[in-house]
TrEMBL record, chain A:
Domain of life from the UniProt record: Eukaryota
Biased composition (Low complexity): 157-171
Region (Disordered): 154-173
InterPro entries linked to this entry: Ribosomal_uL10-like_sf, Ribosomal_uL10_bac_type
Family in the record: Belongs to the universal ribosomal protein uL10 family.
Protein species of origin: Hymenoscyphus albidus
Name of this protein: Ribosomal protein YmL11, mitochondrial
UniProtKB/TrEMBL annotation, chain B:
GO cellular component, one term: mitochondrial large ribosomal subunit
Protein family membership: Belongs to the mitochondrion-specific ribosomal protein mL53 family.
Protein name: Large ribosomal subunit protein mL53
MF annotations from Gene Ontology: structural constituent of ribosome
Lineage: superkingdom: Eukaryota
The keyword Mitochondrion belongs to this UniProt entry's keyword annotation: yes
Signal peptide: none
InterPro entries given in the database record: Ribosomal_mL53, Ribosomal_mL53_fung
Length: 334, 97
């Protein structure tokens, strides 16, 4: 009786033979190869710890679904991204007044952007990034403290989970995000110089860059001072003199500023706003100062040599005169 | 806080001092249309100033109050202002009827 299973075709047999031979060879050495080819380092390495949470949702100190927690994150990112921030107190402004003020502010900033674009600056529209927003003071304080005092990069613990020295019980590397418990513990008892300012109803005006020109425009709208930051005239900008805008501005009170992490009072803010020509102007001033310094230095260095020369020269002429006088005066005496 | 009998409010404070809280909160207690009915003057002191913060209130009957905001606190200031305001309300009620 012929076998029921027909023999495989030639091509298939060749493939099968190939495979079988390799698998046979493996099977031959299997008992020898499997165990001892693990290196010493590999043996000591613990398995990387398993995360018990999704990567996008690390556990937080306060429940992350609360509005507070999300506001904290929002404020922290705002504070990290804005180098120039003005703090205002708003005393019961109505919504009409807010819209009017925002409109006038945007108008003024757009004008600055246009003049800068004409002058050939290509930094994009800084004015569009300038926002005035009302903040929750308590949450803003803790966000400020986290941004200022909590620097997780600097004190990162070296307990790498794949490091043999780290205990196998260390499951999760320390979390360092804004909402983490580490951030909370590190900043809980700190005090910041801006903290006394952050009481009562507050609004902050944030700039994406330190631009004195934009600051000047904003100050001339929000807290005009006749000489330094003149408010737009009625002819130039009639919208600014609308009743809602004016009544709103009366109730808006500039308190201070935070520039590049430093706290400024009103005088300091005015000074920053009054820097002529912005950062470029400052650079020009610095170059001028250095040049004059160089000139002064050369003159100082020259000075001593010159004075020496003059002294020596004076002495020489004196000696010559003496010699002349001596030669001239000696005969008289004798 | 009763603000209908006020004609003038003057505050002086240094925003960088923690004690300025009282004066600032007092300002925020004034209603949105306060500037139309009374005169509100605010003086901000420079950061280094050590002057005490101050709330000065004038009433319609001419009474002037000069309150030390740092000592009283916001509750005390409101109490002082309301005490006289209530008297004025009472008088107004009596004269009207």
């Amino acid at each position: 009786m012929p076998p029921r299973i027909s023999p495989p075709s030639k091509a298939i047999t060749s493939i099968l033979r190939c495979k079988r031979s390799s698998s046979l060879r493996l099977r031959q050495y299997a008992t020898i190869v499997a165990a001892p080819q693990v290196s010493y380092a590999q043996l000591n390495r613990t398995a990387p710890p398993t995360a018990k949470f999704p990567k996008t949702q690390p556990p937080s100190y306060k429940p992350p679904e609360f509005r507070k927690s999300q506001l904290l994150r929002q404020y922290a990112s705002l504070l990290r991204s804005t180098p120039l921030m003005l703090v205002f107190q708003h005393n019961n402004l109505k919504s009409v007044e807010w819209t009017g003020i925002r409109r006038e502010l945007n108008k003024a900033l757009r004008k600055v952007d246009e003049t800068r674009a004409k002058a050939g600056h290509v930094e994009g529209n800084v004015g569009e990034g300038v926002k005035i927003q009302i903040i929750q003071t308590g949450i803003f304080i803790s966000a400020l403290k986290i941004v200022e005092f909590y620097k997780p990069e600097t004190n990162k613990s070296p307990s790498d989970p794949t490091d043999p020295a780290s205990p196998s019980s260390a499951t999760v590397p320390e979390l360092t995000h804004t909402l983490s418990e580490a951030a909370h513990q590190a900043t809980m008892k700190k005090t910041h110089a801006l903290m006394p300012l952050l009481v009562g109803p507050l609004a902050v005006l944030t700039f994406p860059t330190v631009s004195p020109q934009h600051l000047k425009a904003a100050l001339s709208i929000l807290s005009p001072i006749p000489g330094q930051f003149p408010a737009p005239s009625r002819k130039a900008n009639p919208g600014y003199h609308d009743l809602p805008v004016q009544t709103g501005l009366q109730k808006l009170l500039l308190l201070g500023a935070r520039v590049e992490g430093q706290v400024f009072d009103i005088e300091g803010t005015k000074w920053v706003g009054s820097i002529e020509g912005g950062v470029d102007g400052l650079r020009g001033q610095l170059v001028n100062m250095l040049q004059s310094l160089g000139a002064g230095l050369t003159s100082t260095l020259e000075g001593s040599a010159k004075s020496l020369y003059f002294t020596v020269e004076g002495r020489r002429t004196m000696l010559e005169d003496e010699a002349k006088g001596g030669s001239g005066g000696a005969p008289k005496e004798s | 806080m009763i603000t209908t009998h006020l004609t003038s409010v003057r505050t002086v404070f240094n925003p960088f001092s923690p004690a300025a809280k009282t004066a600032r909160i007092f300002l925020s207690f004034l209603p949105p249309d306060a500037r139309q009915t009374m005169q509100v003057v605010t003086k901000l002191l420079p950061r280094t100033s050590k002057e005490r913060s101050l709330v000065e209130v004038k009433f319609k009957d001419g009474k002037e109050m000069r309150l030390d905001a740092e000592k009283l606190g916001i509750k005390g200031v409101v109490e002082e202002v309301d005490r006289h305001s209530r008297i004025l309300t009472r008088q107004a009620e009596l004269t009207d009827n």
